[in-house]
Amino acid sequence: MAPAEDGLAPGQQTSSAPATGPAAAKNPFNFQTQFMDAPVVKSNIGQRRGHRYKHSSISAQHQVFQEPPPRPPPVLPASLPIPTLKEAWGSMNSNQRARLYWCCCHAAVAVYVFFSAENSLAMTALSHLVFFDVGSAAVCVAVDVLGNFEVWRRSSIRHPFGLQRAEVLAGFAMSVFLVFGGFDLLSHNLKHVLETVGEHTPHHTHADARYVSPGTVDFASLAAVVSTLVSAYGLRNHGRIRRVMRVPLPYLSSLLPGAGILANPFHFLTLCFAFLMLLLPLVSVPYFVWLDRVICAAIAGSMFTLGTRLAIAQGLMLLMSYSGQQPDSNSNSNNSNAVALGKKTDVGGGIGSRGKDNNTGVTAVVREIEAEPHVARVDEAQFWQVHYGLAMANLKVCLVRGCDDSTLSQLRTRLARVVQNRLGEGYGRGGYLRWEVTVQTSTDGGNLAGL
Amino acid sequence: MAASYALPTSAFPQHHYHPSSDHIHSHSHSHGHSHSHAPASLSSLSPSRNRRDSRAAGGHSRSHTNEHNHTHHQGHSHPPAQSRQSLPPPSAPSSHWRTDSTLGGDPMSIPTNGSFDALNKKYELPVGGDPHAHSHSDSHSHDGHSHDHSHDHSHDHSHDHSAHDHSVERSKFTTFLLPYTSRWPILHTIMTEKDSRRIFYFMTLNFAFMTIQAFYGYVTDSLGLLSDSIHMFFDCVALAVGLFAAVASKWPPSQRFPYGFGKIETLSGFGNGVFLVLISVEIMFEAFERIIEGRETKRLGELFVVSTMGLLVNLVGMAAFGHHHHGGHDHGHSHGGHSHGSGGHDHDHSHSHSCSDEKKHDHSPAAHAHSHGHDNENMHGIYLHVLADTLGSAAVIVSTILTHFWKWAGWDPVASFLIAVLILLSSLPLVKSSARRLLLTIPPEIEYNLRETLSGISELRGVAGYAVPKFWIDDRNSGEDAPANKLLGVMHVVAVKGADMEDVRDRVSKYLLGHDIDVTLQVEREGDTSCWCGVGRSPLSHSHKPTKSTNIF
């Protein structure tokens, strides 16, 4: 209470000072007019040595402190605070909280599936898939919540691109989990096969280890199906991860064009196998050991394949490269090739292999930039993707002589537009990639040696 | 806007403290610099037999001498460091190669493969000493605590495997093998690089061992052998990934990878770390299950033999990879490792050691994340993987012995649970440090200098301001002569009206190059608001507002 009063008292005093006496007397608040301890301060003046407060009268008179030269405020904060768990919890809105709760439910389902798989390898494998779903959903929630904070998006010196790359990193970790799961299941499977092939009597008889009587519903698989459907339809959790994998399963999208949820490989896998396990007892297929192993091997194999692809896709991003190929870029690049044909091009520096087919987008863009009237050549062009939503293009361009400021400005805008239009993929399709284009210009014969 | 400025000022004090607390680390970077000068002087000394090889080796031995001395001056009070310093005198007069190795640099910190190459080539060959015995005496002379055990084991395994494997006697064998590999370019690249060669040898050993195991397992119908060979196969896969990363990190930048492949080793280290975390979690779960179920472990004898062999093979790996670390930055790892490996006799003993080991692990990423460490994350990951396997075999051995004497089914789960905890704890720092690098985070001490540098920019003539400064650590030339903390970056600079833009650009980029920052500069005229960086758009602030400026094209 005391500090608040102290803080209020001077303000009250100044506001009431111009007013006349009655006004002050009528003050509804019971504030005492306080004076600062002036005598104490005065008695101190002659005795203080050493440090003096810059704005005190003594220091001002003697100019002990030189004013530092005025500096503009820093462009970037050095670092932004990374939210603690408590702050993150406090910042969540209701939608995010609902997603979090659902994540917990999903995790519970995964644990249930895991523990209801008594020695059934296929069920264990299914639980791995569900665990992966839970993990990715959790990553999505975390990303959502962190997006509430400034440190996530805004760049500081310590985190030049914000923390958004963490999403890619988490995705990479999840894909490592997939690979690990695939390996793990395969090795378990192999061990079981060895145990039974060898003449040792298997110490677990697998046939009756987990037995769902024919014609009844296997609750574990049912739970897996339901939770996956809720996650897919209700929350659209896997949109992000699907975006990374441009060609998730080579034949899936052609087999099921416009299949919506099913085109997402993860939901597809989980749903598929869960349905299979659900149906097998229902239609009274006897539960063979070999069937169990085959299903497990299938799940493990697909986990491994998907995990590898996902890991490569995200690893490329983490390696600071741009590997985007949008399907409709081919026609465009043909056009630009035609435009660029007339121009003699000489590209050094960062552009090593131009004839590569795997990067037609970037090559085409570089050619188009070279085709600009004011551009003599492109010295260096670095295209790389920072995270799912941001990519950078750093160009060092040599111009023809005689460009004034407005031409330069226009040229920059045009180059930025070219890059954005060519490479900013899928604007209407939800996955929007923003390009930050930086163009370093020089004129021919200018000093390039220092750069 | 006012609010957004409250942030930086509040953030300032923290960052003045950070560098000061990390000052020791930032000092150790400068050794990285001095190390870059080394190869010239040493390679001129040595008649170069194989150009690349001897050069790399020379650079290393030199650099470690420097680093070693400096750390002592700064009073890094790692216990092992002190014990190392006190150790050499007693052992020095006993063996003649000790003097040799002091010629080539302090041997304590360099039991790297490459340095042995150099030493053997330059000094050992005339003497005709056995390079193989030699390397062992070197590597163990600084083993502060676990002298006897590690001696025993290393002798064991060296005798065991000198017959069919060659990862121990590197220098002679490598020089003998190199001419033959020149026919296969890939193999040749693997063999010429130090790290990849080591991974390759160990992978070959692992693979050979796996084949033998699988064959005998098949012949004798031994389940334990077969399943252990499966395990070995997965190890081989992990090693192959590491090998690929080590090779790929040397690839030059291309259009698709404008910044080269310097990050691939960090990536591999991260992947390995995550893998280890997952494995240890799984082992913990399994151990829990087994404790609850009380399952009996069977075929004890077979298990014992198999895991002993696995332990031996992995000890070779520990010897190979552990010393790399040693050389690099931290003297804790392989001590811990050795005592672990030998700690098979006594369980508790090995634990206490590994805890101290863990602490050093904690220090090390912060200290070296950028000092020297282009290749360390990959090797660290592999090292931890091998360490995990070694610990696993040791745990199996211990638990079989215990089960043999005291019939309790819980020994094995308990041992594996403890080992899993250890693995988890030791791989978390690796995951953290590599994640930090992959996120392109600027480490505190560099950040401090960077802020100083940036504040100097606006004082340059003709510069009105700047925007969107984004910098990241350069991972391209991960070779020996790369300067340690080079930064790459992007920045938009605003030139005042009337200033020549070329001039401003040259001035700023020269200034930044003077601070080891290679930047792509976009120079804009004051008052031009067309760029996405939004320089002149709001008079109050130059700050970048990504949420607003998403689409201006």
How is the topology of this model organized?
The complex is a heterodimer of chains A (451) and B (553).
Chain A: H1 2-16, H2 21-25, H3 38-45, H4 57-62, H5 85-91, H6 94-116, H7 121-146, H8 150-153, E1 160-163, H9 165-197, H10 219-235, H11 239-244, H12 252-255, H13 265-282, H14 289-318, H15 329-340, H16 360-370, E2 375-387, E3 390-399, H17 405-423, E4 434-443
Helix pairs in contact in A: 6-7, 6-10, 7-9, 7-10, 7-13, 7-14, 9-14, 10-13, 15-16, 16-17
Chain B: H1 2-21, H2 23-45, H3 51-73, H4 79-86, H5 88-91, H6 96-104, H7 113-127, H8 131-141, H9 147-161, H10 170-181, H11 185-192, H12 194-220, H13 223-248, H14 263-293, H15 300-328, H16 333-342, H17 347-368, H18 376-405, H19 411-438, H20 444-457, E1 463-473, E2 487-495, H21 501-514, E3 517-525
Parallel strand pairs in B: 2-3
Antiparallel strand pairs in B: 1-2
Helix pairs in contact in B: 2-3, 3-7, 6-7, 8-9, 9-15, 9-16, 11-12, 12-13, 12-15, 13-14, 13-18, 14-18, 14-19, 15-16, 15-18, 16-17, 16-18, 17-19, 18-19
What does this structure look like?
The complex is a heterodimer of chains A (451) and B (553). Chain A is 54% helix and 8% strand. Chain A is flat, with a radius of gyration of 33 Å. The two termini of chain A are 62 Å apart. Chain A has a three-stranded mixed sheet. Residues 1-24, 38-43, 199-209, 246-254, 326-358 and 446-451 of chain A have low confidence and may be disordered. Chain A has 451 residues and is mainly alpha-helical. Chain B is mainly alpha-helical and 553 residues long. Helices cover 69% and strands 5% of the residues of chain B. A three-stranded mixed sheet of chain B has the order 1-2-3, covered by helices on one side. The longest helix of chain B is centred in the middle third of the chain and has 31 residues, at 263-293. Chain B is elongated. The model of chain B is unreliable at 1-169, 325-374 and 538-553 (pLDDT under 50). At the A-B interface, β1, α9, α14, β2 and β3 of A face α1, α13, α14, α20 and β1 of B.
